[in-house]
Design a protein that fits this description.
The chain has about 450 residues and is mainly beta. It is about 5% helix and about 50% strand. It folds into two domains: about 5-335, Methylamine Dehydrogenase, Chain H; about 355-460, Sandwich (Immunoglobulin-like), CATH 2.60.40. It contains two helices and 36 strands. It is globular. The two termini are about 20 Å apart.
């Protein structure tokens, strides 16, 4: 068996480059919420290195027995205005974990309703609002007592909420309903519902001047802009397949938007004027997801959901200048300035996981595609596969090295996902080359068709 590090090098995702740019402060931190390892990874952006991980639960697949302690699917992140508290949202165990950024210690925990997604502090720091995506409300928590104090009814499936700096209004996007709820913070009531073009939005962010709110539509690959004064949609941008998160940075006196487009392994950069223009497409590692900017706009940090790490983009050159390995399947990412003592790694565990091997499956014709990642799980491996834009309601078989590894049935949108456990690394590496024989490739076949590279609907 080829060593896993060698496979990563062959896949072209291992190296790290360094350039002598101005460094962030040693007290700054970058955090990712790692869904598969159930960790929060803590990075030092001044040195471009992982300091360690805050372990909140067991890593997959060791979360399938009855769970009495620990969190599942560590997914969302938020922070207090003074950067002293980080909140981590776990949508599998319905929890909000409060973490002291100076010590990396858990100082409190609140359990809320079904499948919370993201949470954020109010502008004055006195409340934490957590969207409960599996239901239809926002849970309001007192961060001093860690107790839920009230619930704010919203459209079904709230996806994220953030606050205007004057503390008067909050904006909540939805993952199930094509609307944005505008909430009066003082009364805790929705005062306006703004129709948008898609029912699935996981993320929103304000422009630096807070004149606009931009939100992503993951399902249709689009960004919607909303005027925060008129509360009206001012435009949309077609950004690309699996549009995840976005951030803003001031570069050369201009405000630019940086959007993670997971299905294309790109961060796309747009102007923010009346008619936004695409000014750069920055190649990244596998499935870019979370993104946040350094305070001075000199760098943007990108979490790689299938690359298990963070990449650093220099905004002056619009290129990746460093890569930091981290937890498995990072989702949300935040950058906090002056969050911890310089260089401190107190109460952090060493990295619990190894590097992943991400691959892309393509269709010989048509829009179908697949995202695949092989990860080490001790003595065995996991192969996680998600397919898109295939025939709706159809059974597909997945073959590794000519042997059936599992099957998938697509939903009404032609999408499906699954995880296979076994010794899959050698097959994944051998199939990285298009010229590899069929017996060494990953093939997705429709129905009961036997493995045949020429007839495969998807292959690597």
């Amino acid at each position: 068996m080829i060593p896993f590090a060698r496979l990563l090098a062959l896949a072209g995702i291992l190296g790290t480059t360094h350039t002598a740019w101005a460094l962030p402060a040693p007290s700054d931190r970058v955090y990712t919420a790692d869904q598969n390892t159930n960790t929060v990874s803590v990075f030092d952006p001044a040195a471009n290195r992982l300091l360690g991980q805050i372990v909140l639960g067991n890593q997959r697949p060791d979360v399938l027995s009855p769970l009495y302690r620990g969190e599942i699917n560590v997914h969302g992140l938020g922070f207090s205005p003074d950067h002293k508290t980080l909140v981590a949202i776990s949508n599998g165990s319905n929890s909000v974990t409060f973490i002291d950024t100076a010590t990396n210690k858990v100082k409190g925990k609140t359990y809320v309703g079904r499948s919370p997604h993201e949470g954020f502090f109010s502008a004055d720091g006195k409340e934490v609002w957590v969207v409960v995506r599996g239901e239809d409300y926002i849970s309001v928590i007192d961060p001093s007592t860690f107790k839920e104090t009230r619930r704010i009814p919203t459209a079904p499936g709230p996806g994220m909420v953030q606050f205007m700096p004057d503390g008067k209004l909050a904006f909540a996007v939805s993952s199930f309903t094509p609307e944005v709820d505008v909430i009066d913070v003082k009364s805790h009531k929705v005062i306006k519902r703004i129709p948008v073009s898609s029912p699935f939005s996981p993320f929103l962010q304000f422009t630096p001047d807070f004149k606009e709110m931009w939100m992503t539509h993951k399902d249709i690959g689009r960004v919607t802009r909303i005027d925060t004064h008129t509360l009206a949609v001012t435009g949309t941008i077609d950004t690309g397949f699996i549009t995840n998160h976005l951030t803003f940075a001031s570069v050369g006196g201009k405000t630019l938007a940086y959007v993670t487009v997971g299905g294309e392994n790109l961060v796309k950069v747009y102007t923010t004027g009346k008619d936004p223009q695409l000014v750069a497409s920055i190649p990244t590692g596998a499935l870019p997801h979370g993104i946040w900017n350094a305070d001075d706009g000199s760098r943007v940090y990108v979490g790689l959901e299938n690359g298990d790490g963070v990449e650093v983009i220099d905004t002056a050159s619009n290129r990746v200048i460093a890569r930091m390995p981290g937890g498995q399947a990072p989702q949300a990412l935040v950058y906090l300035s002056h969050a911890a003592p310089p260089g401190s790694a107190a109460n952090l565990a060493p990295r619990v996981n190894q590097d992943s091997l991400p691959l892309t499956l393509k269709a010989p014709a048509g829009p179908g595609r697949g995202l695949l990642v092989a990860r080490q799980l001790g003595v065995v491996d996991a192969l996680e596969l998600t397919v898109f834009k295939l025939k709706p309601g159809t059974e597909y078989r997945v073959y590794l090295g000519g042997q059936q590894a599992g099957s998938l049935r697509t939903d009404a949108k032609g999408m499906a996902s699954g995880t296979m456990i076994g010794p899959v690394r050698t097959f994944a590496q051998a199939g990285a080359a298009q010229s590899a024989p069929a017996a060494e490739r990953v093939l997705v076949m429709e129905g009961a068709a036997p493995p045949d590279a020429a007839a495969a609907v998807l292959s690597n």
